[in-house]
Amino acid sequence: MSELSWDDVVEMPNELDDETAEALLRDATEVQDMTGEVCPYPQVEAKKAIAGLSPGDVLVQKTDHVPSTENVPKAVGDDATAKVWQSGDGRYRIFLRKE
User: Fold this and answer.
1) CB-side neighbour CA atoms (13 Å) of 78
2) Residues 6+ apart with CB under 8 A from 25
3) Residue ranges of the UPF0033 domain (predicted)?
4) Measured between alpha carbons, how far is 38 from 5 in angstroms, rounded to an integer?
5) For the residues of 51-75, what is the DSSP string, one character each?
6) Strand 30-33 relative to strand 58-63, pairing
7) pLDDT digits (tens, 9 = 90+) for 31-63
8) Which of 18, 45, 60, 74 is surrounded by the most beta carbons within 10 Å?
9) Shortest CA distance to 73 belongs to which of 35, 31, 39?
């Protein structure tokens, strides 16, 4: 597989294949496992993490809480660009790139 970039994260959750999602996860600057956590905890943790990253760094949040896929991107606002990946078994990854 060639080197991955932010452009490999797609807008629609089901358009990113599992292999690419795994590679992007390995290349992330920081990973937060929010599996089992509910809002507002994931939003708070995402905002704190984004504040400590450099522009271009990528934070990935793993979650199984569907509302987080909308609430976390809203919480980080203009501080990060967000894209979401959904696995076939109800797990999600929220990719946040610091602006």
Assistant:
1) 0
2) 31, 60, 93
3) 33-98
4) 29
5) HTSPTT-EEEEEE--TTHHHHHHHH
6) parallel
7) 999 999 999 999 999 999 999 999 999 999 999
8) 60
9) 39
